[in-house]
Amino acid sequence: MAGFSLGILGYGHFGSFLHKLAERFLPDVSVRLYRRRATPGDGLFTTLEDALNCDALLLCMPISAYADTLLSIRDRLRPDTILIDVATVKGYTGQLIRDLVPNQPYICTHPMFGPESYAKKAGNVSGFRIVITESNLSPELDQPFRDRLRQEGFVVVEKTADTHDRELAETLFLTHYIGQIISHSGFERTEIDTVSFGFLMDAVDSVRHDMQLFEEVCRFNPYCQDVVRRFDISEQSIRQRLLNLDPIPQIS
Fold first, then answer.
1. Both 47 and 154 in a single domain?
2. Are residues 172 and 140 in the same domain?
3. Are residues 134 and 174 in the same domain?
4. Same structural domain for residues 58 and 151?
5. Per residue in 112-166, pLDDT tens?
């Protein structure tokens, strides 16, 4: 891919992680980084215009910033720049791309992993899943993209945006929901942890610092509110069962 350029728009927790992956897996690609509060020319970040003037552009801004960002850049994009959507929700962001930049080539994806899982596997990406929900790329562009991901060890999963969002609400969001509750309750690891408790706390650690993402997924994924309701109903049922247990018999 010599001569290919990749812009990364947004450099938060996940954007910086994708930069690391690009440096590892795409060493011949020219990567241009833009962060709104950064100073261009500091050796790492460039101007917005330079980042937009790329063959492909990774959209790594918060979900809540998608609409404003697309509106602000749509008249400044090259007509052939491929937009790569990596947001955690897919229905909302895919619809924005179709509505606001209808003539732009794009592909909507969700990498089902992050820097925590990458670190736990010591950088081994074999088996890491990347969901692709939609694309308007020509077969000449689309297929090589998927083939390259598979060659590096990633598993490409194809789903509709609606199916992705529903399944994500019942898996990743549910994990975040439980993890945030445990984190805010102050429960910590001990010297006598069981293996299952260790797995539970691993999940807590993976979401402990992702409150913004947690809230935005709940806001923009229409299935998350139902997951919260179902969990709360079940929790109340279990709690009532425990509270109604027979008292401990007194020894006379």
1. yes
2. no
3. no
4. yes
5. 999 988 998 999 999 999 999 999 999 999 999 999 999 999 999 999 999 999 9
**Are residues 152 and 193 located together in one domain of the fold?**
no
Do 191 and 135 fall within a single domain? no
Residues 198, 189: contact at Cβ < 8 Å?
A: yes
Across residues 243-247, what is the average pLDDT? 94
Residue 203, in any domain of the structure: yes
The answer as to whether 246 is a domain residue is no
Sheet of 106-111, strands arranged across: 30-34, 5-9, 56-59, 82-85, 106-111, 129-135, 155-158
Q: Is the pLDDT of residue 11 over 90?
A: yes
pLDDT mean over 10-29 = 95
Longest dimension (CA), the chain: 86
- Residue among 158, 138, 156, 135 nearest 147 (CA): 156
**SS3 letters across the chain:** CCCCEEEEECCCHHHHHHHHHHHHHCCCCEEEEECCCCCCCCCCECCHHHHHCCCEEEECCCHHHHHHHHHHHCCCCCCCCEEEECCCCCHHHHHHHHHHCCCCCEEEEEECCCHHHHHHCCCCCCCCEEEEEEECCCHHHHHHHHHHHHHCCCEEEECCHHHHHHHHHHHHHHHHHHHHHHHHHCCCCCCCCCHHHHHHHHHHHHHCCCHHHHHHHHHHCCCHHHHHHHHHHHHHHHHHHHHCCCCCCCCC
pLDDT digits (tens, 9 = 90+) for 29-49: 999 999 988 777 677 899 999
Which domain covers residue 78, as residue numbers? 5-159
